[in-house]
Specification:
- By secondary structure, this protein is of the alpha/beta class.
- It folds into 4 domains: 3-149, DNA polymerase beta, N-terminal domain-like (DNA polymerase, domain 1), CATH 1.10.150.110; 154-238, Beta Polymerase, domain 2; 243-317, DNA polymerase, thumb domain (Beta Polymerase, domain 3, 2-Layer Sandwich), CATH 3.30.210; 326-559, TIM Barrel, CATH 3.20.20.140.
- It has 23 helices and 17 strands.
- The strands form 4 sheets. Strands 11-12-13-14-15-16-17 form a 7-stranded parallel sheet, with helices on one face. A 5-stranded mixed sheet has the order 2-4-7-6-5, with helices on both faces. Strands 8-9-10 form a 3-stranded antiparallel sheet.
- The protein is globular.
- The protein binds one DNA strand through helix 2, helix 3, helix 6 and helix 8.
Amino acid sequence: MPRANDEAAAALREYADLFALSGGDAFRVRSYQKAAKAVAGFAQDLTPDNVRTVPGVGDAIAKKITQFLKDGSFRQLDDLRAKIPDGVRQLTRVPTLGPKTAIMLFETYGIDSPDALAEAIAAGRLAGVKGLGPKSLTKLLKGIEQLRQNAGKVHIGVAMSMAEQVIAALSDSADRIDYAGSLRRMKDRIGDVDILAVAPPSIMAEFRAQSYVTEVIAGGDAKTSVMTTEGLQIDLRVVPAESWGAAMQYFTGSKEHNVALRERAVKKGWRLSEYGLFDGEDVLAAAEEKDIYAKLGMQYVPPPLREGIGEVEAAVRGELPLVVELSDLVGDLHTHTDLTDGLASLADMVAAAADRGYAYYAVTDHAPDLAMQRMTLDKMLRQREELRQLQRRYPKLRLLHGTELNIGPDGSVDWPGDVLADFDVCVASVHSHFDQPREEMTRRFITACENPNVDIIGHPTTRKIGRREPVDADWDAIFQVAARTKTIMEIDSYPDRSDLPVDLVRLAKHHGVKFSVDSDSHAIPHLAYQRFGIGIAQRAWLTVDDVVNTWPLTRLREFIGRDH
DNA sequence: GCCGTTTTCGGCCCGACTGTTTTCAGTCG
């Protein structure tokens, strides 16, 4: 992943937020937001020479980015940072609280953080404020509570990209270096990143000097903890080369998995620690993680399965499932282009898909009910024709013309039935009315599942990690229907969605539901997000039989009833 | 601030929902 792009995009997003808070023109705010998105989704690494070719970047923003690439910031950003406390920007992360309210609260009441806001509401200081009635204040308190629960955690996309950045920066100074912890177990929310290295002590100084380090929390020869610009803690540990495998095992966890492993060692009269597996003074295994599992007389347990939920027992019996791997995927069934809210053209997305070696690839732009996307029947048909033309260039890649439908409050979807029947695949997703009562929401999903033209339910819970809670529905009932109607549940790999979440994947599998691990790409770099969806699938013990886009196209077509 | 089968100004994805308003502002997708 191109890091300079991500950092520049973050700076532009921050600038857009601060610019909005300072009362800046809404259209200019949108220009910065648009540019940030385009920069993050730009397929090449950003340089002063190509920055002007990013769509949505004109002379003014190009100048800011160029300065950012050189100095790690730009003047206008520094100015606004000095004027508006970071806490005021944090205020806008409270759901239903936007820039207008945030700046009013700051300027009129001196409220400069979500905590200060909670305090002011509790103290009654905001009673009777114009525009903020009792219902609004209650909502704000609830939003602040949500924010607190997510505090200190980031989604896996942020953590992975930080970890890879650290490893890339330090790998020349280390014999071995890798990430462990919950990140290696592919959890969707990460509290801190654990990195292990076999390296001389001087690596610690190098680590502390990295540009993204904002604070050194603890610094010794064996372990250094820092806080980063993303608000994410990173621990770097130097471990002896001879106990690398034991250390990786120990620091990958989970705690419950390690307890089960140590119990097994004790039963054999041995001892397992982060330094190795020992029989008295004798080292049985230590340098390689795989040797530890082998010596303990069990199958190797892939990190995403290490949750202490029966995997140790299964591995001892030799009954661990052969979980699905990233390399098993032969297609992607949910992607966008710039015809709706994607960044790249159809031709560019398809070319990138072909590079990834897929057997099939579905283009699924939004349908007319998401009015903001301005989709029309005519546009859709023209896209289909363009796709058919492109198909001639890619004999090995089967291009599928699909759509991402909008599931309305009553469970109906957009486009008439005869139009739907002509698509190769239909994803259907909820994009609004997230607060329906549980019964209505359940009926809504069941209606969608029972629609014969709906093949896949996209990002089913619609959660956004740290920003939006999952919708409330009776998933047990929905999955029963989905299994009967052969409606596929999506594992949306976009890391802040990570949707379905693991526990619901397990529940759905229990009912016999099949899954599609899709990227939901809105830009070329997003195609690689499937690795996160595979992490979810592995954590739920899914095999290739559970995941439809590991199947040959003929089997997939037959399953969704589009084989005529 | 960006962009141009509107060529250098005048638009900029549009609509709905919510709570509060008595006609609408703010927020969200």
